[in-house]
Amino acid sequence: MATAAIEGWSVLIPGGKRLARSLAVLGLVASSAGCILTKDLPDPALDIPDGYKAARLSKAADAPPTLDWWRGFRSRELTGLMEEAQTVNLDIAAATARFRQADAQARIAGAALLPTLSGTGSESYSRTSGSSASGLSIGGREVVNYSASLSASYELDFWGKNRDAAQAAEETAVARRFDRDVIALTTLTTVANAYFQVLAAQDRIRTAQRNIASAERILSAIKERFRAGTGTDLDVAQQESVVANQRALVPPLRQTLDQNINALATLVSRPPESVRVTGGTLNRIAAPRVTPGLPSELLTQRPDIRRQEAQLASATANVGSARAQFFPSIQLTGQGGYQSSALTALFQPQAAFFSMVGSLTQPIFDGGRILGNFELTKALQEELLQTYRKTVVQAFADVDNALMSIRQTTERLRLQREVVASSRRAFELSEQQLRAGTADIVVVLNTQLTLFQAEDALSQAQLARLLAIVSLYQALGGGWEPRMERPVDAL
């Protein structure tokens, strides 16, 4: 029996099949000082496999990625772009601002747990009229009154309504932190993908330029045969078509190159003119060996799963708060201070006054508002539970898909290299025969086109393998480390 410890919960996985109450964040809610009822805690009822299907096929070791996973590609330029994106990317900055907003909301919600205290000071001056009802004139009376007082009010949170509302706000703030981590992970994988796209475009442009040179060399040889009377005008026209087709491939590749450089510039918050990618070729990029670890570890490795946990925990706390609204609310208010007509006697004992009031309010009829609110929070909790379950199931599928993609693209790359080697040898032999005057023009045309296509496909196969590796890093959480960072205490 395997055991995965997840933030206060001991998740038992008998045979790796049934996960009995695995929602980690709800363990935090249940252990808090709130009044969450046990029946409010949902059971996700997840099936956790013993291992990934594709990992068993490849016999990968159980070790999750490191935090700086991009260093495995051994590119200083890529590492520099990654580090820059973490500090200046605008999406990450906006996500950071959002979790600060959530922290402020948590403090606002937590204020209801504490008494409110206010102080007042006043000076009043009044004068009565000097005229009587009979029209006689008498002296008016002037009155000056000074007062200083403190007033306080406090709601006894006997049923946990305010406590649960504050807990819900805190869990929302936690979810916003995980949301920032999701955006950071997406940003880093996008930087890596765009960088590799740039290198692939550079490789394909160089390949196209070599192919143009080769096609022009063959065209020169065919023209020589035509001038010697051993070739035809059709042979020349066909080869000219090959040269033109190769030249036409270059502009779209340059467009792809420029678009991905601009994408990198946006990710590092710089104008495109200031971004220069000198990496040059995919051949200099190492292909790290990525191991997925255990499926049970994915529950803590992926920030999107942790985000859904926190959102579900917030919804569960809201259910408790909505239930407490059915019960009476108890309010205590008090006021005390000093009042005197003479400022010098304001703080004398005889000038003191105070009052204390306790009140109880019980909802009797509200047209179904409280019941409707409770049913709404229950339905929202159910929605988030299903979303959490889907996120976990999708995470397992993402890892398996990425592992299988790495395996297939690696095999494709190996076979494509064999295709390039065979195609190059066939082309070289046909070119030698062409210069010796013994080659069939159709054979020459076929071998050169096959080589050109094979070399371009090789660059695409290299790119596909690197993108598959990046997708596995992303599926595993990108080496993300679960941080027990909590928002500022609402209390």
From TrEMBL:
GO MF terms held by the record: efflux transmembrane transporter activity
Carries keyword Oxidoreductase? no
Topology term for the membrane: Lipid-anchor
The record's subcellular locations are:
Cell membrane
Q: Pfam families, from UniProt?
A: OEP
Keywords assigned by UniProt, alphabetized: Coiled coil, Lipoprotein, Membrane, Palmitate, Transmembrane, Transmembrane beta strand
Q: Which InterPro entries match?
A: MdtP/NodT-like, OMP_efflux
- Signal peptide position in this chain? none
Question: Where does this protein have coiled-coil stretches?
Answer: 198-225
- Provide GO CC annotations from the record: plasma membrane
Q: Which family does it belong to?
A: Belongs to the outer membrane factor (OMF) (TC 1.B.17) family.
Name of the molecule in the record:
RND transporter
Q: Per the UniProt entry, what species is this protein from, by scientific name? A: Bradyrhizobium retamae
